[in-house]
Amino acid sequence: MRILVLEDDREAAAYLVKGLKESGHVSDHAANGDEGLEMIGVCDYDVLIVDRMLPGRDGLSVVQALRDKGNDTPVLILSALSKVDDRIAGLRAGGDDYLTKPYSFSELLARVEGLHRRASPNAAETSYRIADLEIDLLSRRAFRGDVEILLQPREFRLLEFLMKHAGQVVTRTMLLEHVWDYHFDPQTNVIDVHISRLRSKIDKNFDKPLLHTIRGAGYSLRDPTD
C-alpha cells in the first residue's frame, strides 16, 4: 500500500512512517493540511492517516475537502479527542475509521489494512504461498509440498504473520504486538523459542530454508532463490 500520514508532531510522524515502512508499505508524510491536500492531488494513495488537530486547516476540514471533490480514499482519523461526540464528528466529516491516541501500532496497522481490504474487496486473501510452503487461512492448515505441517495455534499465527509479510524484515516488536498482543518487550525469549520451533517444522527436513534470522533486525520469510 501507499499511505500518506498527515501529522504535525514530527516525532509521532517519524514513528508512524517507520512502522509502516517496516511493515512493507510505502509511506509519505505531510506536516499540515494544505501540504497534505497538495500531495494527494499529485499522488494516488491507498489509505490516508489524518491527525485531527493539524495547524491551519485541521484534519476534519481536510477530509471534508476531499469528499467534496469526490475523493473516496479511505481515511483513518487519529485524535486525542476520545468522546463519543468527537468520534461521531470525525466519521460524519467523511472519515472511515477513528482511532484515539495513545494507540497500539499493531491496532493501527490492522485498521489501515482493514480499510484497504474493504476498499478493494477482491484483495482479501484466504491463503498464502511462498516457494512450496502454503497455508490455508480457512482450514488453518499448513503444507510444504505434499507434507502437512502440524502447527500449534500460536505457531500458526506466527507463520501467518511472517507469510503475510513475506520478503520483508519482521521485527520483534511487530511479532510481540501482533502475535502475542504485548505492547512492550517482556524481556523473555518467547519469540526465540517459537521461531526455533517453527523453523524446525517448516525447514528442518527440507532442502531449501525459508525462515531467516536478520541479525540486529528480526526475521524474514523468503525464498532465497528469488
In short:
With 226 residues, the chain is an alpha/beta fold.
State the strand order across the main sheet.
2-1-3-4-5
The rounded distance between the terminal residues' Cα atoms is: 22 Å
* Largest sheet descriptor: 5 strands, parallel
**Poorly predicted ranges (pLDDT <50, ≥5 residues)?**
none
Query: What is the CATH class of the largest domain?
Result: Alpha Beta
The chain-level mean pLDDT equals 89
CATH superfamily of the largest domain: Response regulator
How many helical stretches? 8
- Molecular shape: elongated
Order of helices and strands: EHEHEHEHEHEEEEHHHEE
| Share of helix, binned | 25-40%
Task: Please describe what this structure looks like.
α2 (33-42) runs parallel beside α3 and α6 (153-164) crosses α8 (190-202). This protein has two domains: 2-122, 3-Layer(aba) Sandwich (Rossmann fold); 127-221, Winged helix-like DNA-binding domain superfamily/Winged helix DNA-binding domain (Arc Repressor Mutant, subunit A, Orthogonal Bundle), CATH 1.10.10. It is elongated and about 60 Å long. It is built from eight helices and eleven strands. The longest helix is centred in the middle third of the chain and has 15 residues, at 105-119. The protein is α/β, with parallel strands linked by helices and 226 residues long.
Task: Explain the layout of strands and helices.
Blueprint (H helix, E strand, L loop, with lengths): L1 E5 L3 H13 L3 E5 L2 H10 L4 E5 L7 H10 L6 E5 L4 H9 L4 E4 L4 H15 L7 E4 L2 E4 L4 E4 L2 E3 L3 H12 L7 H8 L10 H13 L8 E4 L3 E4 L5
Parallel strand pairs: 1-2, 1-3, 3-4, 4-5
Antiparallel strand pairs: 6-7, 7-8, 8-9, 10-11
